[in-house]
Records
---
Amino acid sequence: MTEVIGLIAACLTTFAFLPQALKVMRTQRTGDLSPVMYAAFVLGVVLWLFYGIMLGNTALILANAVTAIFAGIVFFFIVKNAFFQRTQNTGTANAEPA
């Protein structure tokens, strides 16, 4: 019964990230998302994943593996957009007037 409760909790918290990941993938917009928060979150989830692997806890392993993928997708787009925006701003700031 304890494992079942853990799996239900894992499913709910894990799939809570799915709408955000899908929205970011669809719109490509991440301007209102915090890169520091997502970096810390992804790192924390990966550490929970390793912890679950060390314990052999199925709920921890499954939940954190899937959450790492969803949150990692969002973090990837945050970093990609920040880099692309910085590149655009640098390119236009250094351009000579016509």
---
Amino acid sequence: MNTFMAIMSQLFWGVTVGALEAAFATVARGAFAVFGLGGAGWWMVKRRRERQERRSNARNED
């Protein structure tokens, strides 16, 4: 009986740790995707605004 309980304990911890690791990996991937896409979008908006600002300044100088 002790052997059975030891095996069950090992399985329980293996499944628990495996599930936690998978959950953390999924959350981390999601965070990287959100911050990566958000950062790229922010950078593009910033570039577009700077370009529009330069064009409007060039028109106002004429």
